[in-house]
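Appendix B. Raw example, untouched.
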Amino acid sequence: MPLLSKEDELHGYAPDSFAFWRNLAVYFCVFSVLGHWMEIAYCSFMNLFGIVDADSLVWDDPMYPFLVYGVGTAVCVIVLVPLKTALVARRKTLAGAGVQFYAATVIICMLMELAMGFMLNQPNAAGVYPLWDNSQLPLNVLGQAWLVNDVALGAVAMVYTWIIYPLCQKALAKLPLRVMNAASALVIIGFIALCAVKFS
């Protein structure tokens, strides 16, 4: 059984289409910024429990792109959309597919958080973590990931994969090709300029 239906292919889900990669580039740019906004809201809630450091990067300029969320959207599209399609085709009920998908998504989010932590968040000689410190929290994973975060991120990834991404694909497919290509170019160029300013 093919992973993509003809309707999916029509709306740009097929990874061998230009529309797929063009849209993915747009989502990477847009959700790198929106992801930072989402994290501000999440950390504001978590800070009610005194968990978030006052000098965390999350409180800085809200237009500062958090590229990890752009990467997350790419993982959702490239890995989780085919996984969802395969599970829905294999399971007897949509609820069963959803439960299995969510469990897999939480694990994937935990692995991504661990990978990012081991690459970018190693403690210095004084034991201070540069970006975040989950090492003292209960349910932390190897001092870097935190299962509470992964459960929340898994829910976000599921909503994105099952609802937001299909709606965005279908909405963008309705735009004339020239308009969508021009808009995509503007978004990508604008994002590159934003990164050049914020990362310099």
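End of appendix B.
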